[in-house]
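Give me the fold.
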Amino acid sequence: MAWRVLVADDDPEICTLIKTILAKGPYEITLCNDAESALVHIQRDDPYDILISDFMLPGISGIELITQVRQNGATSRMPIVMISGHNNYAMDARAKAAGANAFLNKPFTLSQLRTTVHQLLTDPLSVLGA
């Protein structure tokens, strides 16, 4: 079984990095360069198992994206990893208050991303609201 991963990040290098890191595992990865595209995929495609979103996105922000995901009954329990190039406790707190399960600062290590994604997909206690 492949886990379905949706990635929203406007940096093509980060998207490629995430896809490369997760490609070795049981993951099917969809990449989006903004939150609006991610929302279209969420509404149109088969359900995703996890969302990885950048904090700063063109158009609507990553915070607004995860807020909308949490407000949708069909996706409200989807695990969410927020990533950001800004090492700032306030951003981490805002992301978690909006509903992110985890926050990773860029640059993150291969191990950090793999471990975080695996934990959120396999440990029901790490999923918001469980």
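The first helix runs from residue 12 to 23.
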